Each structure stands twice: as C-alpha cells, then as structure tokens.
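Quick one, probably user error.
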C-alpha cells in the first residue's frame, strides 16, 4: 500500500523507499534494474519478523536466483538506503511507538521516546563482498544480539534476575552511549551535538506518521467492518474506538546521511518485552549460575531485565494506556480515573503538543513525551 501511495502521490510519500511486491512486480523491478545499474536491493518477507528471510542483492540476476528457492512466498523488494546516517561508524534505525486511539475521527498519538537499534559491525557501502554481512547492514536486534560485538547498556542487575524481581531505575545520562540498543532521547542528544536540529527531525517524523496513517485509514475502517460482520458481539464497537479498541504500532525509521527520516516498515505487533539475554562465560558457568538454553540465543545464556527497554517501554505503554483512559474517562469503567492519578501521570500529560494537519484531512497528532 505504501508503494501505491508513493506511485500516486510521489511528492507526499517520498519518505518511503521505492518498493516492489514480488512476484507481481518482478518485471517492473527488472526494468528498473536494467535502467539503473548501480543500486542495491533489500528483500524481506511481506509477513516476516525478527530479521527472518531478509537478504541483499546487487543485481537482478541474483535476485531471481534467490527468490526461486521460495517462489510461494510474498516478498517486498526495496531500494536499499546505501548512505545512512552513522554514529561511531555504525548504522542504526529508530523504533517509534504510535498509538491509534480512534479511526473515525482518526486520532493518532506519537511517543517521543523509543529505541535505537544499532548494527554491531562498522558500515561499508554494499558490494559483492559484504552483502551477506548482516550485522553491518541489518539493524534487527534479533540478529545483532547473536554477535560477540553486541554491547549491552549498563543495567543495575549484574546477577540473573529471579522470578518477580524488578529492575531499578537509572538516570538517562548514565546510559552507555556505546550500547547496541539505546533510547531515542540518548541518540538524539548525540545527533544534536553534531549540529543537527532534532526538533526539525521530530517534525519530519510527525509528517511520516501522519501521512502514513491517512493512507491506511480506509483499510482500518474495512478491518473493523469485517470484524463486526464476523462477530455479532462486536456490533457495538465504534469506529471512534474505546478503552477496549485501540492499537499500538511500531514505525521503523532510518535516517540517511543528511539526517532525513525514511519509513522502512510499520509493525502491527511491536515487541513489548523488556528482557534481554547475555552469554555466560565458562568461568561464570563454573560458579553455578543457572543457565538457559532457549532459542533466544544459540549459546548458554541468562535472562535479565534490560534497563533501556524497561525505561522506554514503560513510557510508551504507560503513556498509551493513559491516553486511552483520558479519551474515555467518562465511561463507567474509567470515570474520573485521571483525576485520581499520580503526579507522574499528570506530568506525562503536561508534555503534549498538537501538530497541524496537512490539508488532506483533519488528523489529530498529539505528542506524549
């Protein structure tokens, strides 16, 4: 759908890389490859997750060979952004949390805190020798956490966590700026020190989210209609949403060398877990630490609460639930809830900013920070 939006409204959706749905658009992609010899293509399953099945190719012939091994899979081929913004020589992307609180009217909220996921190997422009080096080109946490060069942010619990044990808080300034997973606020502070205006960057991200949600609104309405048709129990569910009808999305944004945001994909079910894994050395194993051998890592490891995940997702999820309760505080379930909330909740509400519409349609974008 994003590809169609770009094709029809090229100037409005130029933040989405040129894309092709395979195998349907294979001929069109072939024509583009013949006309432009010097560009790389990233290919990923249309319904994939956690980096599964993603690969890069530098020419049409290699692409045809690769997709011939799985002809039944629907794939998305995308023009690869080969000049990304780098920090410390590493490529990264941003996970932006977006709440859709209502479809009609369309009511969309953006969280001004999120995650930045870094590659674990230095970035080099793609060529035939390094296309398969996924930890240099792909920012997926599920791939990079397997690397010995994955740097975990400092966390207060150096020992494995027991069931029910909570992680303590830590000031943002103490976060390890070399970590492979950082908060967006930490990364934006680094970007600001390099001379870029992060307020302008946030405005650009707002436009990306706003225009994307406008494009998807008819599909969202259709989905609600189909759900109500299949389940009579949902007949009273309103397009205006409710405390039991909202959606938290994950927008994956990448910055190019000019610090311009590009939408890579939108995730309907962003990961909300706050756990991380750490490989245990033989010395630690000898001390009797209880090891886990689950599929989260191919080596024996322990699980602990990631402080950066805890802090970011508490803000994102807590803010989302607060916004939903604010919108429907007159219901019997939530009546007066916000008036009795803690000072922290009221402080959260005090950071809202309203963004104007694009003239296409009235869309309320409000920031929680």
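Nope, works fine. Designed sequence:
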């Amino acid at each position: 759908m994003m590809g169609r939006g770009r094709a029809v409204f090229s100037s409005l959706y130029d933040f989405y890389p040129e894309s092709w749905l395979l195998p349907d658009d294979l001929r069109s992609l072939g024509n583009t490859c013949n006309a432009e010899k010097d560009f790389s293509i990233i290919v990923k399953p249309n319904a994939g997750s956690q980096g599964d099945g993603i690969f890069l190719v530098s020419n049409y012939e290699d692409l045809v060979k690769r997709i011939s091994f799985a002809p039944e899979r629907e794939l998305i081929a995308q023009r690869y952004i080969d000049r990304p913004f780098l920090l410390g020589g590493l490529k990264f992307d941003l996970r932006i949390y977006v709440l859709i609180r209502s479809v009609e009217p369309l009511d969309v909220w953006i969280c001004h805190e999120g995650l930045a996921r870094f590659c674990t190997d230095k970035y080099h422009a793609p060529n035939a020798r390094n296309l398969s080096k996924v930890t240099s080109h792909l920012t997926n946490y599920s791939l990079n956490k397997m690397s010995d060069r994955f740097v975990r942010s400092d966390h207060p619990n150096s020992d494995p966590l027991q069931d029910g044990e909570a992680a303590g808080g830590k000031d943002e300034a103490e976060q390890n700026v070399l970590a492979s997973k950082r908060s967006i606020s930490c990364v934006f502070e680094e970007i600001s020190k390099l001379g870029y205006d992060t307020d302008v960057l946030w405005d650009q991200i707002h436009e990306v989210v706003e225009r994307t949600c406008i494009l998807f609104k008819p599909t969202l309405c259709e989905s609600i209609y189909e759900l109500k048709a299949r389940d009579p129990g949902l007949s009273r569910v309103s397009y205006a949403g409710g405390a039991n009808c909202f959606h938290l999305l994950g927008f994956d944004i990448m910055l190019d060398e000019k610090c311009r945001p590009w939408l890579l994909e939108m995730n309907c079910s962003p990961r909300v877990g706050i756990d991380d894994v750490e490989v245990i050395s033989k010395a630690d194993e000898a001390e009797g630490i209880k090891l886990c051998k689950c599929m989260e890592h191919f080596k024996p490891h322990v699980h602990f609460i990631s402080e950066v995940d805890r802090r970011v997702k508490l803000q994102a999820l807590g803010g989302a639930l607060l916004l939903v309760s604010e919108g429907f505080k007159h219901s019997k379930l939530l009546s007066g809830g916000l008036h009795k909330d803690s000072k922290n909740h009221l402080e959260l509400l005090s950071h809202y900013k309203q963004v104007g519409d694009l003239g296409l349609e009235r869309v309320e974008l409000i920031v929680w920070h």
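The first helix runs from residue 2 to 8.
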